[in-house]
Amino acid sequence: MKHMNSEVKEERTSNKKRIDLFLVPIVLIAAFLNLFKIWTDEYANAYYTAAVKSMLQSFHNFFYASFDPGGYVTIDKPPLVFWIQTISAKIFGFHGWSVILPQALAGIGSVLLLYVLVKRTFGVWAGRFAALAMALTPIVPAVSRTNNIDSMLVFTLLVATWMLFRAVRTAKFGWVLAAFAMIGVAFNMKMLQAYMVLPAFYVFYVVATKITWRKKIAFLTTATALMLAVSVSWAVVVDSTSADKRPYMGSSQTNSVLELAFGYNGINRLTGNTSVTGSSHKQPAQTQQQTASSETKQNSNSSADSSQSSNQRKSSSSQKMQASGGGNQNGMFNTGNPGPFRLFQKGLSDQISWLLPFVIFSIVGLFAGVKFKGPYTTKQKESLFWLAWLLPVAVFFSIAGFFHQYYLIMLAPPIAAFAGAGAVALWSMYKQRNGWKSWLLPGGILTTAALQVYIMSPYVSSIGVASIAGVGALGVILALVLAVRKQRKNLLTNYLGAAAMVVLLAMPAYWAMTPIIYGGNSMLPAAGPDSSSGMGGPPSTATNSKQSGFNGMQPPGSSSGNSSSNNQMQMPGGSSNNGQMQPPSGSSNSGQMQMPGGLSNNSQMPNSSSSKSSSLKRKSGGMNAEVNQKLLNYLTKNNTGEKYLFATTDSTSAAPYIIKTGKPVMAMGGFSGSDPILTVSKLKAMIKKGEVKYFYLSGMGKGGQSDVITWIKENSKEIPSSKWQSTSSSAQQGPSGNGTLYKITLK
User: Fold this and answer.
1) Half-sphere exposure for 644 (CA within 13 Å, toward CB)
2) Rounded to whole angstroms, how far apart are CA atoms 180 and 222?
3) CA distances from 194 to 44, 153, 199 (A)
4) DSSP 74
5) pLDDT tens digit string along 65-81?
6) pLDDT of 498 strictly over 80
């Protein structure tokens, strides 16, 4: 205990010292990467931005995280991050940047927290390098520059880590409770994803805490119970509330938060069983990655000119969607094919894996000579913590059936921590000529440079051969020179070691800047020369970095559409596909992907095309962020007191109108159109009450509500398109412009 108290006093003394001047430029780099030009993203992720607009209007909407101002359906995530975003919008005004700001600050905060966590045990230079590695991990700023949840989630888990480390140092039970309670808080951000760090917390506390086994078990049991209580607190309140007094729980099939947490936002991510039609089924192994979860359309970002269809047809032969490949040769959304080397495949490696070989060498060095029974040094204990964070998360992403590239931010803290701690440890072993361990530093540099060349090789047309060859050559030369100079201790050797670290961080730094250089994507954030496409893949999938996502998708009412026959995502009629993305049966367009719904939306996979400069105000948002003003004028003029401006199948059509007007727009089937919220009888009652009379049906999101849509078509009056349809020929965003506006009035 005396030793523990001395450590606390030492910590307090160190906190009174002057700020680390080397940390200042690192924080400035993180601030630049996370904050610069976020004001150009006018709508951000339109699905979540619409929810913030709705939450600003009433406490009822705020508490339940209602997607629409009418309180019809919630978004598909817990509310905590969106509460923070709403508060930010309340303070700074409702803007795209004001809902992004909390995540950007969280990204900067994560860099600072990692510095603090690593510095105390492994030294100040380890802390500096870890912080820099965290700041320059490409997926970190790519996610932090959006209003997606993951940046805030990682920051919260790092706060929990700081509390856990303090609990071990001080041997105070209160800090253990606080650490696990913070994980419960993180659960209310992104549900089960927060629990991915639990193995690290349990292993570290058991190994590092010097108390009896009885106390360890008692403390961990109590802390776990508190974590679970905090985790489900909001869910229990919501699920206990009568369904008619709250919005429907979006993306659930039983109107339950707990079902959402452990199903759609939980186990289904691992299994890939994320049907969008509401049916629960196990997909064949060969098509698991083709599954179109309700996130599919959210992440279908677009802003390309339809006049480029000829260019798209020219390269279609290299882009055809193979059913057995889960959407393309790199898996659904470029998440690769499951296997032990998945994190080294295209689409994932350039987001997170730049330093993985160096990390592996660092782990070997940090654990060299460790005996299973101990005793363990503080460095070894904390290394075990980061390893217990890294391995389970890496295994999950190696085998998971469905996730997006930006989820990989969960791997950033342990990779950065090992990069910082390992750099100092391997350098020490090298300088001391510590046998075989002295070869770990040049070996780590050499293999890491080789991997970086491999990662960059698909982007030759974007970044040039010189950049790739330069990194490879410098890495090899510096590694070989360090190997040769192992017996020499002089200033030149120190400079060579520092230069090697700079070389290894050069391309991750460039990749981290690509969302600023080329434009980002708030729906599917990913770094790389094609970052604005949201696909994070090599140029063979999306060559032009200024293009945003899926081409040719039009806002409701826009008459311009893209009729290119290749690489289209089509909406087949019926629901027999149970939500799977499959090649159209009997179709000659083998490059097409299908989604449940009904009609073709003629939306194409990202391709080589030109678009407006990313320096302009970005209204992408991944959905139809540009509203059809003629449609809006018509609906506003003809509204006779109805609660809802109009109803549509899903959130894609509804979100921009909510953002634009702040008026209720009903997404009948929730986010993807698959939620079993509405029945014919319920809809009849709403129409008779005068709550809704206009329906815009685009063919998207039909799965799970075909009876309702059929009834609408059979009992409504079709409004002539000349009264509301835009004649603009410019390619805008959103679902197909081939939709129809209906009017129903029941006596």
Assistant:
1) 25
2) 10
3) 24, 7, 11
4) B
5) 999 999 999 999 999 99
6) yes
